[in-house]
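Sample entry follows:

:::
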Amino acid sequence: MERFKRYSFIRWFYPGMQIKRWLLLLMVGVAMAGLGIAYFLREVYVSFTFPSVFYYITLQFIPQWGRGTIFMGLALIAITVAIFQLNHSILSALLPPRDGHKPLVEIIYNRRRLSRGPRIVAIGGGTGLSILLRGLKDYTSNITAIVTVADDGGSSGRLRQDMGILPPGDLRNCIVALADAEPLMTKLFQYRFPEGSALAGHSFGNLFIVAMTGVVGSFEEAIRQTSRVLAVRGEILPSTLEDVVLGARTDEGIVRGESVIGSGNGRIQEVFLVPPDPLACPEAVRAILEAEMILLGPGSLYTSIIPNLLVKGIRQALIASTAFKVYICNVATQPGETEGYQVADHVRAIEDHVGRPFLDAVLINNNVAPLPPQWRAEPVIMDRPLHRPILVVEEDLVDESDSRHHHSQKLGRALMNLYYERGQLAATVRETS
């Protein structure tokens, strides 16, 4: 009984496990085999005379219904133990060790549950997108992250310049965020080589993706195979496969380069891509059109979120999609990029770059507290109405350990509640507008 408790025996019979039908078929097969054996034994029993000891061996002193119950019970116990032990023996030899020694039934149940979750597309980049993905992967495995490839700073920028490939940094962070691999493997992918070496500043994950690109022949296939190595729950895709440069028009002129934008070159008026009309990644367009919910943010407004929307195919698919579209507003302003911005400013900037209204809802943080002056940031609040009627949902989303960022679990829970209650909430907006 202790072994059955450890394997959470009852979970094998939960809906959606796709186990009960095969157990039933097995029992029917065994019952038919038993019926055949019973016919054979009956013929032997009436044709031969057995020694008296068989009276006790065959439990003749117990009524027939009692004997039937005993033998059926013993048979069910033997079959059940045999099935689970056989599965355990086979899978323990074929699968790698499971983190935390989770019972097999729990792993199967979680995977079945996650596979039935909503189809969600998350668009963005940087730290914000990674935080979002960590919160979502506990609710669904049908996640597609569409990531900007305009990064030109740090390790990604150096590899982009030296190797001529798309910047892998944001894609690597998303892979790690959605990974279901051993913790040591995820730490390895985030490891940065120390100063004083030829690889100083590079992360192992970036170099791994570059090496994988050389092995498989293309950057997109390298991302796909790297995701397999870390057992990613979902899919990570670049918004475009073309080499693009992000530019910005500010009140002091035009600047180019994602790492330069927001570094004291004036207030940003709009951003653009060079070349202006890169082709969208086809898989990303397909994911948007098939999505049930599309999320933008959190993350740097002008350097992580909007650059994806400047890809024409992504923008057109976003407008055409019938999915529930939500913007997750940042909890704090970003120095040099969104200083003085409130919720309405973020929403207007996004829809102005898309060229038309398309958002269905905005999710904002309501756990607001003053930020330290050295952060040069302020909480993003809603001190004036939006430029048009949009569903606004306020939740406690902030990470108490770093109040500039969202908390993964809080954010994931709030988004799933919003998704399942979207119809009722949208009706409230229509009634009040």
